[in-house]
Request: fold
Amino acid sequence: MNEDDSSKSLVQLGYNPLVEAGRLELGANTDNLARVTAEHKGEYEVMGINGTHRAAVTGRRMATAMGRDDYPAVGDWVVIKNDVDDAKVITDILPRQTTLHKKRGGRDESRLIAANIDVALIVESTDRDYSLNRFERYLVLAREGGVKPVIVLNKSDLYADGAMEASIAAIHERFGDVEVIATNTVTDAGLVQLTGYIQPGVTYCFVGSSGVGKSSLINKLLRQDSIATTEISEKTGRGMHTTTARQMYFTTTGGIIIDNPGSREVGVMGASSSKVGEVFDDIDDLVRACRFNNCSHTNEPGCAVQDALRTGTIDAARYANYVQLQKEIKHHEMTTYEKQQKSRKFGKFIKTAKATIGKRKAR
Reply:
C-alpha cells in the first residue's frame, strides 16, 4: 500500500450497492467497516474511513472456522471493533461478491487468495512457462469465482516481427472474445492502453507465473517503485518478480490493484465441471451430442468428439487439456467426499465413545 494512503473513503475502497447490502444485513456502522489490504502471518492490514490498522480475527471466529475460506482474504470487506488496549479485531466478513482460488502447493486442496475482485489480469510472457493450456486454467479459475478474465502479454519486445500478432490471433481463436493487452515495461509499449483500462473504484488482481513482470507493471501503473524487484538478470535482461505476499495498492486515478505471488502450477481444485464447460463450450457441446450418455469418447460409435478430432474441428491439444481438467476436478471432488466421510465416521466414533464412557460412569 502506498505510504500516503493511510485512509480512504469507502467509495475509493470499492464500496458498491452489494457491499452496502451486506453491511446492512450485519447491522454494522460504516465507521466499523474496513477492507483487507494485506495479509500477514496471524494478522491483517485493514483500511477504512478512520485510517489503516493491524487487526486479528477473534478467537471465536478461529474456533468456528471450518477452513481457509472462513478467514479474511485480501479484498474482503470486514467489520472491525476495538479490543483490549485499542487493538483492532475482525468480528465479521461481509458476503463475498467474487473469489479467486488457487491450488495449495503439493496438496489436493484450494486456497482463497483474494475476494471481491472485478477483473483478473492474467499476465504471461513468452520467456517463461507460456502456453494456451495455462491460460485455459486461469480462465476456469476466474470464471468459477465470477471474475472477468483479461490476458496481458508482457515483454512484447521479446517477440519477433509478427509473432505478437500471431499469439493474439491464437488466443482469440481458442478463447473467443477474451480481451488481450500487449505490454512492455522497458519501452512502455501498451502502458497507455493498460492504464486506460484501470477504472476508479474497480478492483483488479494480477496473477501469473513468477518472473513475467507483474510487479514491474504495477509499479508503472502506480508511477512509483512501490514493489521491489530484484536486480536485472544478465541472462534475461529483466528484473525478477519478488512478491511474497498479497497486497492491495491504489493508483493515482482511483484504480484498486492486488498484487499476487507467482504460481508455479495452476491447479483447478474447487472448480466445477460447468465452469470448465464454459471455457471449453465447443467441446462441451460435442460431449452432449454423443450418441450414448456414458460415452468415454474413445471408440464408441456415434462419438461426436472423436468425429471432431478426426476432422480437425477441435484441436487435439485443447481436448487433452479439457480431459485433464475434468480429471483433476473429479479427483478433488472424490477426495473431498472421502474427507467428509472420514469426518462423519470420526464424529460417530466420538459420539459412541462418549456414550460408552457415560454408561460406565453411571455404573
